[in-house]
Structure formats: structure tokens, C-alpha cells
């Protein structure tokens, strides 16, 4: 068996070397043929490869979109006519200011006619009623009692007349304030 194995191995290696030599010769002949043909009939120039952008991930796509948006915004800012924009903005602010002033005048007129004037009239009426009440129901009887009691009358007037009268006056002022404020708040 040793002779067959040795002979087969030598034959296999010889054929493998011969096949590689033939492939190498074939490649050389093709190159020489192409070179001679290109001298006689030159080939058209090979176009440059186009830039193909390959994205690695969704993150890269998002970055590109963001950059495109920023570039577009910068271009819009560069093309904007800022003097026309300023004039337009001034016109709009002036119109809003005029509208606000008009509404303010209407509010003041409403407050004067519908809130302050009736409230003042009510306050005057309540003041007259309070003064009459004080005169008839408090001051006159207190003065009569003070005269009757003499020196003790001054303390009596202070404790029994002035303090309750002041309290009654405060209650009337609070009542008037509520009457004036409540309609004004509900109608605004």
C-alpha cells in the first residue's frame, strides 16, 4: 500500500501545481489582451462613484433631520425682511394698544355710571339715615341722661353711647361696601 499512496500523493500535488499555473497564465493573457485592446480602442472613462450615504441607525437619521430643520430655519432667518417685520409688528402692537385703551375707557365709563354713582347715592342715603338715627335715638337720649347724672354722665356717654355708636357706624360702612362691591364684581 505504501507505493500507491506515495504515487497518488505525487500525482495530486503535480496536478494542483499545474492547475494553478494554468489559472495564472490565463489571468496574465486576459490582462495583456485588455491592455492591447485599450491601446487600439480606448474604453470610455469609468464614471466616478456616487456618494452613497449609509445610515447606521435611527439615531443618525434623527440627527440628519434635526440638522436639516436647523439649516432651514437659518435660511428663513437670513431671507426675512426684518424692516417689514418690524413695521408689521409695530402696527399690530398699536392696534392692540388702541383696542385695550378703548376697552379701558368703556370699563371706566361703566364703573362711573353703573357702580360708583349708585354706590355713592346709596352711601349718601345711608349716611343721612344713620345721622338721623344717631340724632334721634342716641345723641338726644344720651344728652338727656348725661344732664340728669352730672359728672357720671361723661363716663356713661363714653361707654354706653360712643362705643355702640362707633360699632353701629362700622357695620353701616361694611354694609355699604358690600352693596357697592357685590354688583360691580358680578357685572364685570
What Rg, in angstroms, do the CA atoms define?
55 Å
Described by strand count, sense and barrel closure, the largest sheet is: none
End-to-end separation in angstroms reads 120 Å
Helix tally?
Answer: 4
Output the structural class. mainly alpha
State the shape.
rod-shaped
Q: Give, in order, the helices and strands.
A: HHHH
> How many individual β-strands?
0
How much is the average pLDDT? 80
Percentage of residues in DSSP E strands: under 5%
Helix content: over 70%
Outline of the structure:
With 188 residues, the chain is an all-alpha fold. It is 88% helix and 0% strand.
Protein architecture, described:
- 88% of the residues lie in helices and 0% in strands.
- With 188 residues, the protein is mostly helical.
- Helix 3 (82-149) packs antiparallel against helix 4 (152-187).
Task: Give the topology.
Layout: H1 2-40, H2 58-79, H3 82-149, H4 152-187
Helix pairs in contact: 3-4
What tags apply to this protein structure?
4 helices; 88% helix; 188 residues; mainly alpha
Amino acid at each position: 500500500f505504501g507505493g500507491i499512496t506515495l504515487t497518488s500523493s505525487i500525482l495530486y500535488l503535480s496536478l494542483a501545481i499545474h492547475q494553478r499555473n494554468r489559472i495564472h497564465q490565463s489571468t496574465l493573457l486576459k490582462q495583456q489582451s485588455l491592455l492591447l485592446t485599450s491601446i487600439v480602442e480606448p474604453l470610455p472613462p469609468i464614471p466616478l462613484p456616487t456618494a452613497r450615504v449609509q445610515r447606521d441607525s435611527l439615531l443618525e437619521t434623527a440627527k440628519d433631520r434635526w440638522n436639516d430643520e436647523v439649516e432651514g430655519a437659518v435660511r428663513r432667518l437670513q431671507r426675512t425682511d426684518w424692516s417689514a417685520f418690524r413695521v408689521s409688528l409695530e402696527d399690530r402692537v398699536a392696534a392692540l394698544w388702541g383696542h385695550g385703551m378703548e376697552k379701558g375707557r368703556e370699563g371706566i365709563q361703566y364703573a362711573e355710571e353703573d357702580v360708583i354713582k349708585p354706590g355713592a347715592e346709596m352711601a349718601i342715603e345711608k349716611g343721612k339715615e344713620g345721622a338721623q338715627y344717631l340724632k334721634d335715638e342716641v345723641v338726644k337720649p344720651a344728652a338727656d341722661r348725661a344732664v340728669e347724672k352730672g359728672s357720671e354722665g361723661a363716663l356713661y356717654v363714653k361707654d354706653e353711647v360712643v362705643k355702640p355708636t362707633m360699632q353701629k357706624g362700622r357695620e353701616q360702612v361694611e354694609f355699604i361696601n358690600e352693596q357697592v362691591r357685590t354688583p360691580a364684581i358680578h357685572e364685570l
